[in-house]
Amino acid sequence: MISKKDNVGQPILSISDVAKHYPIREGALQRVVGHVRAVDGVSFDIFPGKTVGLVGESGCGKSTLGKVVAGLTDPTSGSVRYNFNTQLVSISSLEKNKFKNFRRNCQMVFQDSFASLNPRHLVFDIVGRPLKVYKEVSGYDLVEKVVSLLNQVGLGREHLYRYPHQFSGGQRQRISIARALALNPEIIILDEPTSALDVSVQAQILNLLNELQKARNLAYLFVTHDLSVVRHMADSLVVMYLGKIAEAGETQAIFAKPYHPYTKALMDAKPSFDEGQNSKAKGLEGVVPDPARPPQGCRFHTRCSLATDKCGWEVDDVVRWLEDTPGMFESLTAVERKSEFSAVLSFSDESSAANLKQEMRSEKLPASMRKALNKVNINEKNVQIEFEPVEEILLREKDGRHAACIIEPKKVNQEA
Amino acid sequence: MMLDTSDQKNFVAKVDDLKVYFNSKRGTVHAVDGISFDVYKGETLGLVGETGCGKSVTGRSFLQLLPIPPGVLAGGSITYNQQTNSSQRIETGSKPGFPNSRNFEFKKVDLLTLTGEEIRKIRGDSIAMIFQDPGKSLNPTLTIGAQLSEVFLQHRTEEILEMAGLGSEAPGAIRRFASQRNRIFDKWLVNLSGNRLTKSRVEKAVADLVAKALSDTQVPNPVKLMDRYPHELSGGMKQRVMIAQALACNPDILIADEPTTALDVTVEARILDLIQDLQQRRQTSVVYISHDLSLVRRICDRVAVMYAGRIVEIGTNNEIFKNPRHPYTIGLMKALPSADTARGELLAIPGNVPELINPPQMCRFSSRCAFATDKCKNQDPQLEKVTNSHSVACFADVAEISGK
Ligand SMILES: Nc1ncnc2c1ncn2[C@@H]1O[C@H](COP(=O)(O)OP(=O)(O)OP(=O)(O)O)[C@@H](O)[C@H]1O
Ligand SMILES: Nc1ncnc2c1ncn2[C@@H]1O[C@H](COP(=O)(O)OP(=O)(O)O)[C@@H](O)[C@H]1O
Ligand code: SF4
Ligand code: SF4
Ligand SMILES: [Mg+2]
Ligand SMILES: [Mg+2]
User: How far is A117 from chain B (nearest CA, A)?
Assistant: First the structure.
């Protein structure tokens, strides 16, 4: 027998180095021409009775990770291990019965209630289905059980025999939550569960989730982009950027002092209610880069206002810059790479080549990028470019906090 | 002319006792049940309230975009104070009617009773809407570039001619073509007296403008995006295309129904900047529908709080957020998670929104209100002024509520 204390120390789910790559297919033969690296090496643990918050921009891989964790899709590499009687077992090696047991204990509530609720099924069937499949209750009891589940999420008996389209977006999300609760799971993966809800219902749902958590020692993986909600709900926080963890640690500590510029940027983009009328939201410049070709060094360097010359400036940054500069991209004819950091760019005319060379040293490019530039040589229509190569910037631990950034936390928080 | 000049300044739209019902098997759903409010020129009016309380239905009413049936317009009007350029001058031919020497006048129309043809002219032109669900509002058969080009050609003619170097000396024929509302982009171009150079210059100008509008909304690779079809885009991308399209129209009124709900916080901040730019440029009035109170607090001049098909409180930003008077408004704000709320102790408003089927004569919030009295269960409170700009529909003693 293990002591109670040991039990608390054991995760219910352990995610280690999980990656999920989706093939990109093209052409008539649907040949694989590359991979979207939706999740690219992510590790963390989920403990019973605790909530892990997962935040990040759309497309950064949160939902994909959620699906891998729930066993709805297999990871490309790495493993998700589930705690079967104190033994951590990889869910991909589970035999059928045990996997079924895992699935029943690990439920998921999806982001898009339109897509996840069958439009042809009545609410009664939607919420009652898992109970029927697992032969929990039947007949009159089933009706009563479904009604009680509906009541728990703020709906009632009058909603039993309606179709999803007869509800507003918020109401549909409550139906999804009722369905997930039906089998008394141990873990619920909540993918933006309250994003479509108004605050009073959100408060009910968050309180409800919290009550259920306490009563049943439920573990949550709470995916959201609402920082005030994760701050309220999550014990620990995982901040993802482009398939990787940018920062992870204890929630309150991260809010008090983010160690990663991306975390800081997320916070600045959404002032909380208390900050009032004149608070200014600060958007983040640029777009999330293509996850099929994630940036070198630090994946955030293309948008980071604190980026240094050591952050991974590369040939792709030049290409990205050309893409956004009307007129220039059209005259780019080829990019011959020696490495991610060194290439020859060919243009259709000499003036474009000359133009690029000039711009590469101009203030139009970030100073840190110019500093990382070792070489820019022109030869007729070709421009040779070489950056200082850097290794990938990995997660580092400091005071129980993990952050993948080379600059000091103090500096991250200095900037106004 | 029969213009009331004081009115003219006051509002661009006046919603008066609007009632929209939905017939269902179980009875008539009073989705919007007698609401009145003004939209002032250049302001941002927030419309907040619980899901299903009628915000989207209200917004859609402005453009006759309700599904009728099952919907029924059960009463009321939406007066649109339309600023039009006087076409009489051109017709009487006293002077050539160049658009930059327009003569404005105001024309009041009831948006609810316009014919299909008339409302189509207004839709996407002087009144634009961004939908909560972006899927349905883009044309699935046109590329993103093609549908945006159409909109730009209709609404930014001057700018395009300018960019194409055809500015002031553009011949009248081109101008007339430009301001015409031809459906298809190509047709418009072909008609340009066969002038290939002019054609390619205009084409380029439109493409540049479209690319700029798209990149303003931070979609990745705007140039490539223009060749794609709506079904190839993610929800967030469609939403941004729609935003670019709505902003391109330079509307008088923009109805934004949860325009950023599907977007990232980092993009949201940017979109709000774009909307504010438009407002400054064109004095556009924005009706901003949202359930995000912190956002509404940040961007709105005035706020209307809806509950169960009614407006229960309306006032300036400060009045609503610093001095809320209605128990529902107060409840909403207490329900927000703030930095120091203990977990599980959010002050949720108990209970649910009542069924909107044949609602009885009583305060619709009374089943959930901590201050409800017998009177509340027997009479239906109406909006009454507390200050010139602040109205509340509640019988209770406000001091007692805020004192608590
Ligand atoms: N096509 C329809 N048929 C029947 N009822 C409808 C229809 N559209 C809306 N309703 C009903 O009208 C009421 C108001 O709906 P509306 O979409 O305006 O809500 P909302 O305030 O925008 O909510 P949300 O915050 O979820 O967007 C709801 O009770 C809804 O169920
Ligand atoms: N089934 C799929 N096939 C191909 N690419 C996918 C699939 N699902 C997601 N992706 C891609 O993986 C990345 C991460 O997606 P997702 O996990 O949904 O992000 P998030 O939930 O953070 O918004 C995105 O680039 C997305 O386009
Ligand atoms: S390592 Fe840190 S400073 Fe450098 S780009 Fe990444 S987040 Fe910015
Ligand atoms: S009228 Fe009565 S029930 Fe309605 S909000 Fe006011 S106090 Fe509450
Ligand atoms: Mg997602
Ligand atoms: Mg709505």
Answer: 16
